[in-house]
Amino acid sequence: MKIYDVVWGNLEIKDKEAIKIIKHPAFKRLKNIYISAYGYLFELKRNSTRYEHCIGVYLLLKHFTAPKKEQIAGLIHDVSHTALSHVSTYAFQGKYTGTEFHELQQHKFIEESGLAELLKTMGYESKEVLHDKAFTLLENDLPDICADRLDYALRDGIHLQILSRQQVNKIIEGIVVKNGEFVFNNIESAFIYSFNFYLLNLLHYGSPAEAHFNNDFGNLVKYAMEKGVLEEKDWYTDDKYLITKLKKSKNKDIKAWLKKYNNKLVIYEDIQTPTIVFQKKIRIVNPKVLVINNETDKEELKRLTEVSDTYKQITEEYIKNHTKHELSVRVEYKN
Predict the structure, then answer these.
(1) For residues 155 and 80, what is the distance between their CA atoms, to the nearest angstrom?
(2) pLDDT tens digits for 263-309?
(3) Which of 29, 96, 148, 210 minimizes the number of CB atoms within 10 Å of its CB?
(4) pLDDT, position 45
């Protein structure tokens, strides 16, 4: 199966099991589900899909010779994701709490879509491969790095022109597996990746525009659910279907709501006169780096902030400016 991937370039997937999963309707659905609903609708450069991301995670795990079961777990880790990605969390506020809606529905979706049956023919129990916390290369917690976090940050870094092809290659070449986790073998690769992640969080993931959109559009789809315009089953279609259904709605409030998203909308951070204040997640990576201890002449693992004064200063300044974990946002419309 020949593909082009923005991170890996032109390549051929030869694993027959992976190909069968990729060609399954449940997986192909991800072609029209974007990692960022905001990025898909307004930030046209940021157009990575969950289809591409899942394959990218699989390729990363395969490249570093992760166990086959972990490779398959990486390939399907987002297969149950809802349309509009994390906006569904807002749509189901009050009904589901604590865990993302798509995570609660994983097993149900896998079973009803027929993907569980396919996995079983390959010798995999769906409950095992969906337990991503059991796979330390696939998933772990910040500030460490993992296949999931590596892939989407590299993918978005390229799309948003933060990273060059050569920088992506440098990052991948600088990654090694140590004690069952991804670490870097040099400071430069670790810094390039981590600074890219910092910029993505500052300018995109945690930006005023994205915070406003996720909240406001989340309220819109929640309203559409309450009015019966959208149904719970619609979340297991895709972004294009769901957006089209909203646009074709005869509900006047929904039509007026959608018209608010235009080029007259201005959104920026303003701590003095905010329109709304959002809770802000502090998302910083601080990966482990293999360095030589000058006294013992042996390798040891250090956090990037311990070996890079520049990155330490960047992260400390960022945390200092967001001690309240708040993002004050001003929303205006130009005349």
Answers:
(1) 20
(2) 888 999 998 999 999 888 788 999 999 998 888 888 999 999 999 99
(3) 96
(4) 72
CATH architecture of 2-208+280-326: Orthogonal Bundle (1.10)
CB within 8 Å of 263: residues ≥ 6 apart: none
* Cis peptide upstream of residue 143 (ω within 30 degrees of 0): yes
List the chain domain ranges: 2-208+280-326
pTM, entire model: 0.92
What is the C-alpha R_g of the chain?
A: 21
**In whole angstroms, what is the distance from residue 51 CA to residue 296 CA?**
46
b/e per residue 78-116 (b: at least 16 CB within 10 A): bbbbbbbbbbbbbbbeeebeeebbbeebbeebbeebebb
Is 319 a residue whose pLDDT tops 90? no
Asked if the model's pLDDT at residue 37 lies above 80, the reply is no
CA nearest 55: which of 99, 89, 24, 100?
24
- Distance CA(34)–CA(240), nearest Å, equals 10
Lookup: tokens for 273: 């006169």
Tens of pLDDT, residue by residue over 69-109, are 999 999 999 998 888 887 877 666 555 454 555 566 777 88
Q: How high is the mean pLDDT of the chain?
A: 90
End-to-end CA distance of the chain: 52
